[in-house]
Design a protein that fits this description.
Distance between the termini: 44 Å
Shape: globular
Structural class: alpha/beta
Radius of gyration: 17 Å
Order of helices and strands: HEHHEHEEEHEHEHEHEHEHHH
Helix content: 40-55%
Bound molecules: ribulose-5-phosphate
Number of domains: 1
Strand content: 15-25%
Number of strands: 10
Strand order of the largest sheet: 1-2-3-6-7-8-9-10
CATH architecture: Alpha-Beta Barrel
CATH class: Alpha Beta
Oligomer: single chain
Number of helices: 12
Length: about 260
C-alpha cells in the first residue's frame, strides 16, 4: 500500500486494530438535530476520546479549531434533506481538492442500495474511490437506509457492505444487526458500526457494540447514542473501553455510572 494511504488509515484505525469514530455530520440532511444544534458545544468535550471525527466541511471550518482537531473523515455526499422528496438522491458535494486542502484522513459517502438512486450513488462511490486512490485518501462508504430503518438486517447490510468494498471503499460503515458476522465475513475491508436513532438505555448500546466487536467489527462510527445521551462524556468513555480495552457490557455500564457521577 502506498505510504500516504497507509498513513491515513493508521490515523483512523489505531494500533490495536480498533477505532472509535465520532460522527457529527447529521446536519447535512437533518438540519440542527437535537443536541447538535451548536456543533462546537457538542464536540469540544468529546474530542479527546474520539479517534476521528466524521464531519462536513462547513462544520469543520466553523466549529473545530485546526490546532485541536482529531483526524478528519470528511462527509462529501449530500444534496437531499429530511423534507425533500428522497433522501437517496445524493451527489458528491465536496471535491477531492477541498479534501486535500482540509488535510483530511479520509472522505465519506453514502450509498443507497436497493433504491431508485442505487446506480447514481454507487457510481458516485466509484468516482470518489478513483479520485481518492489518486491522492492516497481512503474512502469510507456509508450503507445508508434513509427512513427505511427496517432495512437494518443481515441480508441487506451484507449485500450493501460487500458492494461498497467491491467498488473500492477502504472502510465500510454499516449498522449493527442480528447475525452481524454475516456482514463482516462477507466484507473484505474493515467494518465499523453506526448507532442509528437513540435507543432507550445505555445498556442496549453497550450490548450491541460488544456483540458487533466479537463478530468482526473493528469499531464504531456512533453519534446520536453518544451525544444525545444525558451524559455524553460518560457514554464515550464507556464505549472506548469496549472498543480499545475489551471491556464487557457490564464493565462499560460500571464505567458509565461512575463517570456520570463525576463533577463536570
Ligand atoms: C448520518 C450518518 C452518521 O454518520 C451515521 O448514521 C452514524 O451516526 P448515528 O450513530 O447517529 O447513526 O451517516 O448522516
Amino acid at each position: 500500500m502506498e505510504w500516504g494511504m497507509a498513513n491515513r488509515l493508521a490515523q483512523l484505525i489505531q494500533s490495536d486494530g480498533h477505532c472509535l469514530f465520532l460522527p457529527v455530520d447529521h446536519g447535512y440532511f437533518q438540519g440542527p438535530t437535537r443536541k447538535l444544534e451548536e456543533p462546537r458545544k457538542t464536540l469540544e468535550p468529546l474530542l479527546p476520546y474520539a479517534d476521528a471525527v466524521f464531519i462536513t466541511r462547513g462544520v469543520l471550518r466553523s466549529s473545530v479549531e485546526p490546532d485541536k482537531a482529531k483526524p478528519i473523515i470528511l462527509r462529501v455526499s449530500g444534496g437531499a434533506s429530511m423534507v425533500g422528496k428522497d433522501l437517496a438522491n445524493e451527489g458528491i458535494t465536496t471535491s477531492m481538492e477541498e479534501a486535500i486542502r482540509l488535510n483530511v484522513a479520509a472522505v465519506g459517502i453514502s450509498i443507497f442500495v436497493g433504491t431508485e438512486y442505487e446506480k447514481e450513488s454507487l457510481l458516485n462511490l466509484s468516482k470518489l474511490v478513483d479520485d481518492g486512490e489518486r491522492y492516497g485518501i481512503p474512502v469510507m462508504a456509508v450503507t445508508a437506509v434513509g427512513k427505511e430503518l427496517e432495512k437494518r438486517e443481515a441480508r441487506y447490510l451484507a449485500l450493501a457492505s460487500r458492494i461498497a468494498a467491491e467498488l473500492g471503499a477502504r472502510v465500510v460503515k454499516t449498522y449493527w444487526c442480528e447475525n452481524f458476522d454475516k456482514v463482516t465475513k462477507g466484507c473484505p475491508v474493515p467494518v465499523v458500526m453506526a448507532g442509528g436513532p437513540k435507543v432507550d438505555t445505555q445498556r442496549q448500546v453497550f450490548d450491541f457494540v460488544y456483540d458487533g466487536m466479537q463478530k468482526g467489527a473493528v469499531g464504531v462510527n456512533l453519534g446520536r447514542n453518544i451525544w444525545q445521551d444525558e451524559h455524553p462524556v460518560a457514554m464515550i468513555k464507556a464505549l472506548r473501553a469496549i472498543i480499545h480495552k475489551k471491556a464487557t457490557p457490564e464493565e462499560a455500564e460500571e464505567i458509565y455510572n461512575s463517570e456520570k457521577s463525576k463533577k463536570k
